[in-house]
Amino acid sequence: MKVLEQIRKPSKLDQKIASESYNALASVIEQLNSEQPEIEIEETSEKIKIPLSALKLLGDILKAMGQGKLISLVPIATEVTTQAAAEILGCSRPHFVKLLEEGKIVFTKIGKHRRIKYDDIIKYRKQMKEYQKQNIIDIMNSDEETGLYDS
User: Fold this and answer.
1) For 79-109, how does the pLDDT look when each residue is reduced to its tens digit (9 = 90+)?
2) Does the pTM exceed 0.70?
3) I want to staple 148 with a disulfide (CB 3.0 to 4.6 A). Which of 26, 52, 78, 143 is the partner?
4) CA terminus-to-terminus distance, the chain
């Protein structure tokens, strides 16, 4: 995998090719019946079986690349540092450490260092989004009950 410093925005040519490839791949994926389709590399005539989920992921990558977006792949089982986890959540490292110490996110300690599984961070982020959504709904309902939305 590429190191973060080596990642660059796709060129205009790469965007065009990715966009065209995405359109072709998306239409082919819709027609597939197998969970392990076989693809062929035209230049070498080599055939490769690939999981359908990986082929769909390739489609997602091509779509994002065609839109000029940067791509980053992170294996789910990866453990990250507190700083990286805080950046994923968009909060400060001290706040994130507080969340860990309060037991809101599971972590392991290696010596003095805390490590957090990527999927646990994403799970916490989803929970927080649901909590925020519910709070907004509660506030709107409260405003309606008090007549703040009446004309």
Assistant:
1) 899 999 999 999 999 999 999 999 999 999 9
2) no
3) 143
4) 57
